[in-house]
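Researcher: Next sequence.
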Amino acid sequence: MIFRKLVVVGGVEAVLNPPHRAILDELADTVVTVARGADPGPELADADAAVLAFAIPFGRNAIDAAPRLRYLQVASTAFDAVDVRYARDRGIAVATLPDYMTEPVAQFVLAVLLEQASGLAAGRAFRREGNLFPLAFPAKQFRGSRVAVVGLGTIGRRVAEMAAGLGAEVRYWSRHRKDDSGFRYQDLDALLSEADFVSVNLALTDRTRGVLDADRIAALAPGTVLVCTAPLELIDLAALRARTETGEVRAILNHALPDTIAYFDGCPGFVDPPLVYLTDQSRALMQGALVARLREWAAQP
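Model: Next structure:
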């Protein structure tokens, strides 16, 4: 059995190579693509499956527009943009693609931490100005520094392993203690207040929304570098803006969209956010997992 109609939303097809793109055509009588930002509602009316790119909103209106939908595949590791509870109440199976971005995201976090510790951006600026004096910008030694990992899931654990491998003292907080991790668990308030570097890798749920509240942001020590590769709904952004506005805290927010970037305009501690990019290896994992899951669900009666 194959899908009658598969709707692909947000540009997923752009990251599929031709063989994997051809498999989509094999799994459905009709495959329709909807660009990011366009309303998928008209195409969802008779669709029984849909694939969403990263951060594509899929709330009640979209779900109500798809009365025949039975399978929703999110082509990313998170589905915080999807009203999962409502979808499942409507009998729609919702799935993500876990783990394929573990290495690129963890590598990104470590690269940003080392860049900030080494003062590379400031060093480049000094050099452009002709200042070659090596003590013009004080670097921070990463070895022996304290790295706080907030959320010790697959990505958080890999960040912890990489940081520990370079000699940092790694501690973590997670909703559930991971006593087999080899890393020291610490109360979140103490963890944040004692950290040199903070890596936020926590899934967004009703229990974690706003977990980095104003009090916890205020408790960050001056000089702390915070990197968030998780949904920004975890953080009190007004409180974070106040700390970055003074330059006391440096923040790199991978999920920052233009409105958020504009909100932090003029804050010297806000680092214009780079992005996590797909590696060739993670792209291969993503493509394989995506078509495998679609095949599995298409085969169900």
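Model: The mean pLDDT is 92. The chain has two domains: 3-98+280-298, 102-263.
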